[in-house]
Amino acid sequence: MINATPKNYQHLLALVFAVKEVNDNPKLLPNISLGFHIHDSYVDGKLTYLNTLNFLSPLERLIPNYSCGIHKNLFAVIGGLDSETSFFIDNILSNYKIPQNTPIPPRNTPEMPLPHPHKGSRLVSYSISAMMMNYENWFPSIYQMIPKAEHQYQGIVHLLLYFQWTWVGIIAVDGDQGARFLQMLIPLLSQNGICSAFIDKIHKLDSTDALTDFFFMSWFQNNLNLSVAKAKAKVVVINADARTVVLLNWILHSPAVENAIETTMAKSNDVLGFQDFICNVSSHWPEGDGFIRTFWQQAFNCFLSDSKEDEANPYRCTGKEKVESLPGPFFEMSMTAQSYCIYNAVHAVARALDAMHAARQKREMMLHPFLRSVSFNNSAGDSIHFNEKGELESGFDIINWVTFPNQSIVRVKVGRVDPQASLGQQFIINEEFITWHMAFNQVQPISVCNDYCHPGYRRKMKEGEPFCCYACGNCPEGKISDKKDMDDCVKCPDNEYPNKNQDHCLLKVLNFLSYGEPLGIALAVLAVSFSLTTALVLGLFIKYQNTLIVKANNRDLTYCLLISLFFCFLCSLLFIGQPRTPTCLLRQTSFSIIFSVAVSSLLAKTITVVLAFMASKPGSQIRKWVGKKLACAVVVLCSTIQIGGCCVWLYVAPPFPDLDPYSITTEMVAQCNEGSVIMFYCVLGYMGFLATVTFIMAFFARKLPNTFNEAKFITFSMLVFCSVWVSFVPTYLSTKGKDMVAVEIFAILSSSAGLLFCVFYPKCYIIILRPELNSKSYLSIKNK
User: Fold this and answer.
1) Calpha distance 100→51 (Å, rounded)
2) 3-class secondary structure, 164
3) How far apart are CA 81 and CA 145, in angstroms?
4) What is the pLDDT of residues 26-79, one digit of tens each?
5) What is the pLDDT of residues 519-567, one digit of tens each?
6) How many CB atoms lie within 10 A of CB 677?
7) Half-sphere exposure of 184 (CA within 13 A, CB side)
8) Comparing C-alpha atoms, which of 275, 266, 269, 271 is closest to residue 399?
9) Which of 273, 275, 253, 278 has the alpha carbon at shortest distance from 263?
């Protein structure tokens, strides 16, 4: 059965063409010719029941359950285009176990009694828009000429995600069919990040009246424009019965609808010879076609008349009208998806009949087993076979309806959804074949609740609104978003950092104090200069080693102090350059040991001054302690303790080269990891302890009467030394990267220079500029 509208007339032609192909094929059903009867359902249940009973009755009269005379040799029935029509047909035929090839799977409605599961009706569905509630539970023997409906839902989701349409309107037919559609589609949309901008329902058209069509189109067009404008959605997903879809085609492609686009998903193919067959259709079509007159008059807006009195009427059909001149929404020349399914349904029944006759089965035997196992390639090259549920194992084509200014339409295949294909090939689309609606200036429309969040920003949910509606916020410091609409910003890898716009990462520059930069050069030159100065002072003291000022306060301690200061200046060079394993092991340990030797030498000098003063008193027992052995013992003991601490440090947790990606955002700091921070501060603390003891002793011994008393110079030098290192700690902790290294080098150089100049500058002044003060005669005069 068909719904007799001009758009659906092609379905009739597809059936006629398929039957003609079968009858013209000598290898298929030899000596048997297929015939057919076509009835109009008028979208009316009563008429559908009546026409179905006509299939089962003698030619002349309608007498159910009675066969007399010449009767219709009925093998199968191709059902209606809408679900109710198919249900009504099956409700009758299931009682007679006559295979029915129905255009769509029937859907359950509360007011319809359901057939028993054991009934033997066979349905072959070809509608792409029909839905039903769990039909396989009630119609286990249905044959559906379209793939499973769930595949279409998945295809719709794939299509929306491909074009990044996350804000879409949904329109469904009111009733069970629309409820099923919404029940299955909306959860899928939500699971894939797609929101419903609006959900509208339209009434199913139960009349073929042209006036009803006009009012429906006007109402729907106004409501669609209102919904789209209010929701700001440019994409609408529509589910409707086949007849309503025909009317929607006119609406969606009219200039008045500027914010809608239709991409129809169906399965079709070009059947060889079908267009030539259509071109032969004329108003003088065989008399057996009871639809040609209605079709011709509606399609060409004229009336057919054989009366000579009407020859002068300008509205009389001339008979020269050509169907290929009709606009696409009204009548298509290429085979539509529904017509293609009807074509395949006829061939499926014919091959099942052929198989049944080849097996020499009696006519009374059911056609069902042969129909279930049918498998063939049609003339278009497509494979036709059913799965265990009676569903066609196939996919969907993605069709782009291209509308031209003259309202003609061309269907362009732009992709395919095939659940049976291999992974990665289940959804294919060729975007270059798509022609967008003129309202979008031929470019892909954007259908989102709000503008995308550009790279450098992240999505922020709006309270009380769907998750597709959001605001955009800047990425937090240290993070980026390199794609649009990211839910959260991400950190760069450790060796990279965010750019200014926070939309991509830049490679961090390696940070270390090198000999090639001004600061490194300056510190190196300063260290070498101080070490050379120390060497000159040492040479000067060796030259004047026999003078009184050199001999005073233990000459060996003076040499030890100068040598240690010489190496103190040089050890600062270990801190310049990219850290390596040897330099990391030697940096802090060599510096702390050498400084400990220098400070312990000063401590020994101070002890020598104190003991010399105390030994000068009559009867003092301390005189036996005064001498070089005590001074050397002090130096050795104090230095050994520091050496022991450094050895423990190197054994337990030695320093090693490391990269610090966190201290400086844009740079990767190459540094020496101290291994054990506790040991590092223990070594520095011990050195500070020696300096404090030396400062205290020198401070109390600064006014002791003694020739060339160094205590006051040692006091001042230790004051400088302690001041430098006390200020070093907070400064060191507040700097980062190579600046930390520079601070430590500066502390080493400044404290070493303080010791050098405060202790030895006065002596060098006397030796070089005031030699008369460095003589026995001056000492004798001073003692008188």
Assistant:
1) 14
2) coil
3) 12
4) 989 888 888 888 887 777 777 777 777 777 766 556 666 665 555 556 677 777
5) 999 999 999 999 999 999 999 999 988 888 887 767 888 899 999 999 9
6) 10
7) 21
8) 266
9) 253
Q: How far apart are the first and last CA of the chain?
A: 145
DSSP for 485-552? T-SS-EEPPTTEEE-TTSSSEEEPEEE---TTSHHHHHHHHHHHHHHHHHHHHHHHHHHTTTSHHHHT
Which structural domain, as residue segments, surrounds residue 471?
Answer: 457-507
Amino acid code (one letter) for 486: M
> Sheet holding 236-239: strands in order across?
195-202, 167-173, 236-239
* Torsion sign across C-alpha atoms 238, 240, 246, 247: negative
Q: In this predicted structure, what is the pLDDT of residue 215?
A: 54
Residue 9 has pLDDT above 60, yes or no: yes
DSSP 704: -
At a CB cut-off of 8 Å and minimum separation 6, what does 465 contact? 449
Same domain, 633 and 755: yes
Is residue 160, in this structure, part of any structural domain at all? no
pLDDT at 177 over 70: yes
Is residue 379 within 8 Å of 272, Cβ to Cβ? yes
Mean per-residue pLDDT, 232-253: 70
One-letter amino acid for residue 734 of the chain: S
> Token match 């000492």: residue?
779
pLDDT tens by residue, 586-642: 988 998 999 999 999 988 888 877 776 665 555 555 555 556 677 888 889 999 999
**Alpha carbon separation from 675 to 360, 680, 736 (Å, rounded):** 93, 8, 18
At 237 the three-state DSSP class reads strand
Residues 695, 689: contact at Cβ < 8 Å? no
Tokens of 120: 């033997």
Residue 610 to residue 79: CA distance in whole angstroms: 123
Same domain? 695 vs 547 = yes
**Rounded CA Rg of the chain:** 51
C-alpha span between 156 and 627 (Å, rounded): 101
Tell me the two tokens of residue 17.
Answer: 């063409």
- In three-state form (DSSP H/G/I as H, E/B as E, the rest C), the secondary structure along 278-326 is HHCCCCCCCCCCCCHHHHHHHHHCCECCCCHHHCCCCCECCCCCCHHHC
What share of the chain has pLDDT > 70, as a percent?
A: 76
CB distance 217 to 247 below 8 Å: yes
- The residue assigned the tokens 């040089």 is 570
Query: Do 489 and 526 belong together in one domain?
Result: no
pLDDT, residue 404, reads 72
DSSP state of 784: -
**Same-domain pairing of 563 and 707:** yes
- CA-wise closest residue to 525 among 562, 563, 573, 574: 573
> Is 428 inside any structural domain?
no
Angle at 504 between CA 503 and CA 507, to 5 degrees: 150
Has residue 14 been placed in a domain?
A: yes
Phi then psi for residue 196, to 5 deg, are -95, 115
Give me the phi and psi of 228, to 5 degrees please.
-65, -45
Distance of CA 178 to the CA centre of its chain: 33
> Do 531 and 471 lie in a common domain?
no
Query: Mind listing the pLDDT tens digit for each residue in 158-170?
Result: 999 999 899 998 8
Q: State which H helix or E strand residue 729 sits in.
A: helix 711-734
Q: Which amino acid appears at position 737 of this protein?
A: G
Instruction: Choose one of 439, 474, 507: the last residue of a domain.
Output: 507
- State mean pLDDT over 741-760: 91
Q: What is the pTM of this model?
A: 0.64
Q: How many domains does the chain have?
A: 3
In this structure, are 716 and 629 located in the same domain?
yes
Q: Cα separation of 191 and 187, whole Å? A: 6
Answer whether residue 54 is part of any domain: yes
H helical segments located in 56-173: 83-93, 135-138, 149-162
Q: Report the pLDDT value the prediction gives residue 217, as an integer from 0 to 100.
A: 58
For residues 364 and 319, the answer to whether their CB atoms sit within 8 Å is no
Q: Which two tokens stand for residue 565?
A: 């200061």
